[in-house]
Amino acid sequence: MQGGEIETAKKALDLVTQVDEILKRLGPYKPEVKSLTVDYLARQGVMKMLLNIPQGLKRKIRQVEIPAYPGYSLDEVFDESFNKLVLPWQLKDGKWVLDADILPASEKYLVTLKGRLSQSGLDELVVVNCPEDPKRDEENDTYWIHSAIKDMSILEQIYKQLSVDRVATCVKVGVERSFSSSIPPNVITWFRARARADMALAGKDRTKMFDSWREYRKARREIGRVFPADIYDMSHRLLSPEAFIIFIQVDDPYRIENLTPLMEPGLIPSAIGVNVQTNLDYQHAAAEGNLTFRKKDFGEKIRAEFDKLQKVK
Amino acid sequence: MYLKIVSEYVAPWALVNEDIPIHFIWKPEPSLKTVRVKLPSEFSVVQVLNAEEYSFDPQDNQLSIDCNSLKSNNYFGLIVRSLKKYRKTLVRRPIETSFISHDIVLASRTINATIVRPKLRIAEAPKNLIIDDRVNPRKLFNLTVAHSGLGTAQIKTRVTTHGKIVSSTDSLFLEILKDLFEDVLKQERAEETLEPKSHGFRLDEKWLQATTQEIERYIRKGNIPPEMRREATNRVLQLIENQKTKERVFRLIYTRLRSLLLGALLYYMDRYPEEDIDLPHGGTRTIFRSEVNKLVVRFDYMDSMNNRYSPVRAIINIDDRRTKKDKMFQAPINVRWKREAIEF
Question: pLDDT of B59-86, one tens digit each?
C-alpha cells in the first residue's frame, strides 16, 4: 500500500509562522494569546493577545513596537477597563510604533491583530467532505457533510482558544430530474415536433417537411400554447436562491451561507451549489450533519407552476 | 481505566475512490498511549488528521498512532478510500479501532464504511426482430434497463454488429448545432448579411442576451457535435474568438434561437430521463447500409468518480427482409429506464 500517499498537515500555516514570530518579537511585553479565530469564508485570521506594559517598562522602553507584516493590521487596543484606545500608531521600518507616554495608566492591554490567510493555508487547517451522489427516496435526496480540523496545534499553547469559523463547503444538489420529470410528456412531444419541423423546413425534402409540419400541428392542438422560453423563465425563477432555499434543510451545526445555480449546456441549471458552513474549535474538532433536498415538494411546485402556465395561455 | 468516547463518525456512504472521513473524539485521558486502526485490505489511507507520528503495517493494513504525537489528546481523524470495485451495489466494510494504554484496551469500536455503486441490468430486450419494408423504425428497438444501487450512472450506448459500430448519437440539439455551424461556415464564404428573423414567440431582450452568452460559453467549452469535422469546429471557434466575425456568428445564432432553445431543452430532457441516469450524448440510433443478422446494444457506464463498470449488453437477432438491403436503415434505440430500490 500507499504509505507514500499518507500525508499529515505538517506544513506550517502561514498564520502560524507569523504569529510565532510576532510573539517572539513581542517578548518584552510577555504576550499572552487569548484567542485565535480563523474566518474560513472571509479567509481572515484574528488574534487577540494581552500585552503587559507596566509603568517601569514604559519608562524604560519609551516606545512600544509591534511588528507589522504584509496583510496584517493592528486592529484595536483596549485597556484593563475595556476602554477602547484611539492611539496614533506610526508605521516605521516594518513596525507599528507608539510613544509609550501616550498610553493611559494601565498595565495590561488587549491588542487585536487581523490578517489575511491564503487558501492553501486554510486547506492545511481544515478538511471538508460531502458525497458526489445523494441517497434518494421518494420524498428527499440526502447528502452527508463532514468537516474536521486537520491540525489542532496551530499554536500549541492556545489551541483551547482556537476557533475556525464559517468552515464552508459547496454541496452540489442535483435538480435535473425535478424538471425533466415535471414537464408534461405532451409538451415535450410538441417541442420535439416543432424542432423537427424547423429542421425539415430548412432542408429540401418536401415529404419530410409536410410530415413534420402535420405532426407539429397535431401536437400543438393538444397542449395549447406553452413556449420553451416559458420553461426557461420558470426554471430560472424557481431555481433562484430565494425561491429554492425553502426546499433545502441542513442539520445543526451547519447553516446555509448562500446558493449558486450551476449551469450546464442545457441552459437550465442541472444542479444548485448550496454553500454550507459551520464553526470548529477545540470542543468541536469535527462536525457532521446532513443536507436534505425536499425534491418531491419541489417537483409539486414545478407542476403547479406548469398548470398555471397552461391555464393562462 | 475507562475511555469515554464522545463522538465517532464514518461517512454513511461513498463510491469507490471517494474520500471517506472518519473521526473519534474522546474525553482527554492521560494514560492513553496508542490508537490502532485496522482497515479492510482494499482500503487506503489518504490523510491522518491531528496526529504527527504514526506507523503503518501494510501486512495487516493497520495504522498505529502514537498518542503523544496527537496535537490535542482528545481527537483524531482519518480520510480513507476503498480502491476495489465490488460486484454488489452495497457492501459494508468494518474498520476496527482500539484505544490502548500499555497493552490494556481502554475502548474499542468497529464502524462500518459503506461502499456503493450504480449497477445496470437489461430487464427486457427483444431476442429476435424482423425488419421489412413496412416496419416503423421509430417503434422497433424497445429495451428496458434497470438501474440499482446508489449513484449516477453516466451511460454511453453503442450498437455493434460483428464488432463494427453501427450507431451514432440521436440528439436533435447536436443536429441543430451542426446545422447552425455549417451555416456559419457557408455564410462566411458567401459574405452575405443576415436579417434577424422573428422568433415566433415573445422573448425578453435581456434574457436573450444572457442566453446567447450561455451558448457562447457552451461552444467555448468545446461542446460541439461529434459528427463535425475537426477543421470546421476549429474554424467556428476561430470565428467566435475574432471580435469582428463574432458579431456575425451571434447574429446567426440569434436568428436560430428558437431552434436552439427547443433543442437545448430537449437535450436536457433526453439527457436525464430518470433519476441517477445521465446520458451526456443524448439518445442513440442505429444506422446501417447492408444486411445485418445480429445487433448488440451495449451500455458502457461509469459513476460520478469516473469508475468504469463492466458494460451490459443485449443481443438481438435480426431477420432482415428488406427488398433493398443496401438502403440506409436508421432507427432510434428506445430505452425505458427502471429504478430498482436499494436496501440501505
Answer: 999 999 988 877 778 889 999 999 999 9
Q: Given A3, A191, A198, which is nearest B265 (Cβ)?
A: A191
A174, A176, A267 member nearest B214 (Cβ): A267
**What confidence tens digit (pLDDT) does each residue in A22-46 have?**
777 777 778 887 888 888 888 888 8
**How many domains does chain B fold into?**
3
CATH 1.10.3470 is the classification of domain A7-117: no
User: Whose CA is closest to A8, among A115, A98, A125?
Assistant: A125
**Helix, strand or coil, per DSSP, at residue B293:** coil
| Cβ proximity of A150 and A296 under 8 Å | no
- pLDDT reported for residue A237: 87
A3 touches chain B (CB under 8 A): yes
Angle ∠(B247,B234,B257) on CA atoms, nearest 5 = 40
In a domain, B276, yes or no: no
Does one domain contain both B20 and B109?
Answer: yes
B337: pLDDT strictly greater than 90: yes
- Measure CB to CB from residue B44 to each of A5, A179, A198 and give the nearest one: A5
* A201 in contact with B, Cβ within 8 Å: no
d(CA B104, CA B99): 8
Residue A228 with chain B: CB contacts under 8 Å: 201, 258, 261-262, 265
Cβ A127–B179 below 8 Å, yes or no?
Answer: no
In a domain, B275, yes or no: no
- The CB-side HSE value for A283 (13 A sphere, CA atoms) comes to 2
Rounded CA-CA distance A37/A279 in Å is 10
What's B91's domain CATH number? 2.60.40.740
Contact flag A133-B265 (C-beta cutoff 8 Å): no
Nearest by CB to A180, from B11, B214, B273: name it: B273
**In this structure, are B21 and B96 located in the same domain?**
yes
Domain boundaries, chain A: 7-117, 128-157+167-179+231-312, 186-226
**Cβ-based contacts of B264 with chain A (< 8 Å):** 265-267
What ipTM score was computed for the predicted complex, to two decimals? 0.82
- A215–chain B Cβ distance below 8 A for any pair: no
DSSP E strands, chain A: 32-39, 44-52, 63-67, 72-78, 90-92, 95-99, 108-116, 126-129, 135-136, 141-149, 162-174, 248-250, 255-262, 271-281, 286-293
Q: What is the pLDDT of residues B194-208, one digit of tens each?
A: 444 444 444 455 555
User: A144 CB near a chain B CB, below 8 Å?
Assistant: yes
Interface of A with B in 251-290 (CB under 8 A): 263-268, 270, 282, 285-286, 288
- Whether B235 and B321 share a structural domain: no
Residues of A in contact with B271 (CB under 8 A): 176, 180, 266
Q: Are residues B291 and B166 in the same domain?
A: yes
**Which residue segment(s) compose the domain that B327 sits in?**
118-170+281-339
